[in-house]
Structure formats: structure tokens, C-alpha cells
């Protein structure tokens, strides 16, 4: 009797564990852009997972992962972006991730989502799996990003993925860094900066038109920011009151700025919250995460390595090296102190320039490089 009881208890425990593990798959769909058929898978677990035997399914089409990528397994926390051989409809569709090609099996299903409407072919499999609620769907604009930790399921865990985000901001120098966290190239020439009531189009601030996946660009903003208290909205058009046009948003020093309500409606900011650390600011998230929790203070050295200009050493008490990656015609270098007074102004004759700063007063200086390609400003600290 005791042996039977022990065996039954053990079997029940195994079933429970298997059930739990099946509901919380290690490898999940992390991002999906149906416009480009781009899929990102991520391992949210603690062990390496082979994915070469996994399958994509968008009924009635399907394809094996091994035919789409050379990546055979994912380490814990690792992501892989895959150009899917399965086509998706932008407005209305579904996507199932399977560990075998038994597409009607809830045991084989690893993850699932549907958008645009409910009732797609594999919804019932996901419902049986316990990872989707019947009749629900992601009711947002594509591309999509999973915002959970790996254990949460359902339509409410999905958000619109904004691939180009504000990655750094130094309000004291009006320096803005944008980064493409997505998997496809994005045209940013039509983007706008907004700090109510001031605004400006990105194309008027930089000659860079396209941002490749993972690329970051530093921009000398024509829109001025207040160091102690302000806001910054990034838009894809100049419809500044539209949450559809807003791409990203931050506010610091205080809450309740003019465009906070737009960001709240967009679902990328919590009302009444603001960044409460010293500038310059740096975004620390993965591109799909939003809010004050993902902003921290950025070191000067980090910001000065972004863009076309490199300043080193920074800080310095003797020599400042200015390295320009690409120089245009009529290039000049100007340095201003914190009072706005011009310290030096000279023609930039080569990509590498040395400046003797030993006689300068200690403090913060702005180094401005201008050419036919535009201008860029960086901050330098004299010790």
C-alpha cells in the first residue's frame, strides 16, 4: 500500500511539473513584425535549448526553424532574429511556435499569439495549452513585442514595438542619441523632436537618413532642453497630440508636462512618474520596455563616444584629442565655455586634432564640429 501511494504521489508530482513547464516555455516569441516577416525568439529559461527542430505555423503555412537560421540553440537570455519563410498578414493573423510539426497538439505548441481579430485556426490549441484566452487578440499596431518576463501569457502581455527609441539625452548640451532596437532599417528623416512648445524635424539636424538594426546616432538637437525639469517626445510625424505619431517619450525633474498624456495614452509612460536622477540620461532597456525604471544617469565618457566625434581623454587637464570619423568640406571646430563664450575657433584640417587645454579654467565646455554635412556638439570636462 505504501509503495502504491508513493508511486501515485510521484506520478502526480511529475505530471504537475510537466504541466507547469509546458505552460511556461523557455523559448518564446519575443518580437514579431508581420510587415517584414521578422521573428525574434528568446530563451527566458535557465538552460540551453535546441531550436533547430522548432516549427513556425501560420495556418495553413508552416516551416522548420532550421531552414530559416543557422542558429541551432539558444543560451539562457539569448535572442535570435529570424527572417521567417512564413508570410504574415499585417492587419490580421496568427503565429504559433511548436517543438514538432504536430500543429494540432497543445503539447507540441510552445507559444502563440494572434492579432487583428480572434478565432484563428490555432487559437483552440493555445486555449487548450492554457496560454491564450479564447476570443482575445492583440489589438495594437504592428510590430509587436512581448513585454512579460517569460511566465506570463495572453494578449495583454503584448505591446507595439517601437524600434527607434531615445537611447541617450543630455539636456545641458541638447545632445540626443537615437537607436534602432529593431530588425529592419528605419527611415528617420521624417521624425520630429518635441519639447512643448518647441519642435524640429530630424532631417534638419542630421544628414543621416536611415538607421540600420542596432545602429545608434548622436544628434545635436535644435530643440533646447531645460536641465532641471523637462520632457522630450519623439514622433514619426508632426502630429504632436497623437499617440499614433508618438514613438517614444521621457520626462524628468517633474511630472505633468504637456505631452505626458499622449505618452500615457500610447501606453509607454505612467501618469505622474518622472526620471528622478541627474542628467545626462541613458535608456537601459531592451527596446520593448518603457517607463522611468529603464532610465539612469549616463557617464560623460559614454555619451562622448556616440556619433561622429570622439573626445579623449575626457576629462583632461592637459591635452584634448578630437577624432572625427568623417569630415565634410569647410570643417571647423569651435569650443565654448559654460557661459557661452567662445574659447577657440579654427579650421579642421585633419580627422585628428590635438588641443592644449592646460591653461583653461576647470569646468564644462562644449566642442562643436561644423561642416557641409551638418554639425555635432559634444561635452568636455577640463579638470
Low-confidence stretches: 10-23
Broad CATH class of the largest domain: Mainly Beta
User: In the residues, how many domains can be counted?
Assistant: 3
- What's the assembly state of these chains? single chain
- Tell me the distance between the termini: 81 Å
User: Based on helices, strands and strand pairing, what is the structural class?
Assistant: mainly beta
CATH architecture of the largest domain: Sandwich
Strand content: 35-45%
* Total DSSP helices: 4
* Silhouette: elongated
Strand order of the largest sheet: 7-2-1-10-11
Percent helix range: 10-25%
CATH fold field value of the largest domain = Immunoglobulin-like
The biggest sheet, with number of strands, parallel, antiparallel or mixed sense and barrel status, is: 5 strands, antiparallel
Task: Provide the residue-averaged pLDDT.
Answer: 87
Alpha-carbon Rg, integer: 25 Å
Number of strands: 29
Description:
By secondary structure, the protein is mostly beta strands. It has three domains: 2-160, Immunoglobulin-like (Sandwich); 164-299, Immunoglobulin-like (Sandwich); 308-382, Sandwich (Immunoglobulin-like), CATH 2.60.40.3080. The protein is built from four helices and 29 strands. The strands form eight sheets. Strands 7-2-1-10-11 form a five-stranded antiparallel sheet, with no helix packed on it. A five-stranded antiparallel sheet has the order 18-13-12-21-22, with no helix packed on it. The chain has a four-stranded antiparallel sheet with strand order 5-4-8-9, with helices on one face. It starts with a helix and ends with a strand. Mean pLDDT is 87; it is low at 10-23.
Amino acid at each position: 500500500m505504501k509503495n502504491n501511494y508513493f508511486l501515485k504521489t510521484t506520478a502526480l508530482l511529475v505530471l504537475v511539473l510537466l504541466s507547469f513547464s509546458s505552460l511556461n516555455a523557455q523559448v518564446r516569441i519575443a518580437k514579431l513584425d508581420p510587415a517584414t516577416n521578422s521573428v525574434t525568439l528568446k530563451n527566458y529559461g535557465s538552460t540551453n535549448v535546441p531550436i533547430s527542430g522548432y516549427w513556425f505555423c501560420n495556418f495553413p503555412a508552416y516551416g522548420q526553424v532550421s531552414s530559416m537560421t543557422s542558429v541551432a540553440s539558444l543560451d539562457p537570455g539569448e535572442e535570435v532574429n529570424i527572417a521567417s519563410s512564413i508570410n504574415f498578414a499585417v492587419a490580421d493573423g496568427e503565429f504559433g511556435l511548436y517543438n514538432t510539426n504536430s500543429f494540432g497538439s497543445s503539447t507540441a505548441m510552445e507559444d502563440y499569439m494572434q492579432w487583428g481579430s480572434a478565432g484563428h485556426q490555432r487559437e483552440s490549441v493555445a486555449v487548450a495549452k492554457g496560454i491564450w484566452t479564447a476570443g482575445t487578440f492583440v489589438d495594437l499596431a504592428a510590430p509587436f513585442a512581448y513585454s512579460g518576463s517569460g511566465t506570463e501569457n495572453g494578449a495583454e502581455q503584448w505591446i507595439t514595438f517601437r524600434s527607434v527609441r531615445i537611447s541617450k539625452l543630455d539636456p545641458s548640451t541638447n545632445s540626443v542619441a537615437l537607436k534602432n532596437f529593431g530588425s529592419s532599417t528605419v527611415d528617420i528623416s521624417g521624425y520630429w523632436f518635441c519639447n512643448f512648445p518647441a519642435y524640429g524635424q530630424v532631417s534638419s539636424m542630421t544628414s543621416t537618413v536611415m538607421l540600420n538594426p542596432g545602429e545608434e546616432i548622436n544628434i545635436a538637437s535644435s530643440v533646447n532642453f531645460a536641465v532641471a525639469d523637462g520632457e522630450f517626445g519623439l514622433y514619426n510625424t508632426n502630429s504632436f497630440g497623437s499617440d499614433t505619431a508618438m514613438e517614444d517619450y521621457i520626462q524628468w525633474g517633474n511630472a505633468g508636462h504637456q505631452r505626458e498624456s499622449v505618452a500615457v495614452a500610447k501606453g509607454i509612460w505612467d501618469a505622474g512618474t518622472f526620471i528622478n536622477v541627474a542628467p545626462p540620461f541613458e535608456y537601459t532597456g531592451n527596446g520593448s520596455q518603457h517607463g522611468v525604471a529603464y532610465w539612469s544617469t549616463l557617464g560623460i565618457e559614454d555619451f562622448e563616444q556616440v556619433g561622429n566625434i570622439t573626445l579623449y581623454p575626457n576629462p583632461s587637464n592637459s591635452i584634448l584629442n578630437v577624432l572625427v570619423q568623417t569630415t565634410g568640406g569647410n570643417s571647423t571646430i569651435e569650443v565654448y565655455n559654460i557661459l557661452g563664450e567662445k574659447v577657440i575657433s579654427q579650421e579642421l584640417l585633419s580627422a585628428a586634432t590635438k588641443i592644449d587645454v592646460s591653461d583653461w579654467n576647470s569646468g564644462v565646455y562644449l566642442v562643436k564640429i561644423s561642416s557641409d554635412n551638418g554639425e555635432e556638439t559634444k561635452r568636455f570636462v577640463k579638470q
